[in-house]
Design a protein that fits this description.
This protein has two domains: about 120 residues, 3-Layer(aba) Sandwich (Rossmann fold); about 100 residues, Arc Repressor Mutant, subunit A (Orthogonal Bundle). With about 220 residues, the protein is α/β, with parallel strands linked by helices. About 40% of the residues lie in helices and about 20% in strands. The strands form four sheets. The protein has a five-stranded parallel beta sheet with strand order 2-1-3-6-7, sandwiched between helices. The radius of gyration is 18 Å and the shape is globular. The protein is built from eight helices and 13 strands. The mean pLDDT is about 90. One of its GO terms (biological process) is regulation of DNA-templated transcription. Pfam families: Response_reg (PF00072), Trans_reg_C (PF00486). Keywords: DNA-binding, Phosphoprotein, Transcription, Transcription regulation, Two-component regulatory system.
Length: about 220
């Protein structure tokens, strides 16, 4: 899971990153308006945490840019603004949730996880695909009721593929999802092939169908049959 934290207060941004990391969440940070626009224009995220009061711009303008670019990321506003007008404006511009500072990190985490479940997996904690069950909270995968010995990266990869079922995902997009925005600075994305190969092997050994397709020259996709 990859998120973007748009927050100019370093202590808050670092606090969120450190709290989310053990939960398998890769966090990128944009510390100002200009950097935020650059990142949302260049990368995709599962969710964006958006501060409204940035040193060089207004967070509401970022919401307008997201809407103009037809971006589908979930957005949670994190702001010290707690007026009814600011909440209404945020929701009217496309925000999915609004959390007032100061907030508890545990609450922010569960709100964000709930938002991603609603957007990608119909709100369920268990992602079921035929004989495969992925428990999002416990980070486990079962095939025909038997748990797989699987890594966090492989679970993240599987959820990314299933969440984008029937869509071709480029190696670059998968690398960004697993490794963050720095993925485009890597010499190559060969590690994606290794993750795909290992995941396919583990699923096949457990008796699962082969749902991961290689689309030569383009990337990979998850499809049924």
């Amino acid at each position: 899971m990859k998120i973007l934290i748009i927050e100019d207060e370093t202590e808050i941004a670092d606090g969120i990153r450190n709290y989310f990391k053990p939960n398998g969440i890769h966090s990128e940070v944009a510390a100002n308006y200009k950097e935020a626009l650059l990142k949302i224009g260049s990368y995709d995220y599962d969710c964006i945490l958006l501060d409204l009061m940035l040193p060089d711009g207004d967070g509401f303008h970022i919401l307008r840019e997201l809407k103009k670019e037809n971006k589908t990321e979930g957005v949670i506003i994190i702001s010290a603004k707690e007026t009814l007008d600011s909440r209404l404006e945020g929701f009217n511009l496309g925000a999915d949730d609004y959390v007032t500072k100061p907030f508890h990190l545990a609450e922010l985490l569960v709100r964000m996880q709930a938002l991603i479940r609603r957007k990608n997996f119909n709100g369920s904690n268990n992602v079921v695909f035929n004989e495969i069950v992925v428990d999002i909270l416990s980070k486990t995968v079962s095939v025909n009721g038997n748990k797989l010995d699987i890594t966090k990266k492989e679970i993240d990869l599987m959820l990314f593929l299933i969440g984008n079922k029937n869509k071709v995902l480029s190696k670059g997009a998968i690398a960004e999802h697993l490794s963050g925005d720095m993925a485009d600075m890597l010499d190559n994305h060969d590690f994606i092939y290794a993750h795909i190969k290992n995941l396919k092997k583990k699923l096949a050994k457990a008796g699962s169908g082969d749902y991961i397709r290689t689309v030569y020259g383009l990337g990979y996709k998850w499809e049924d049959g």
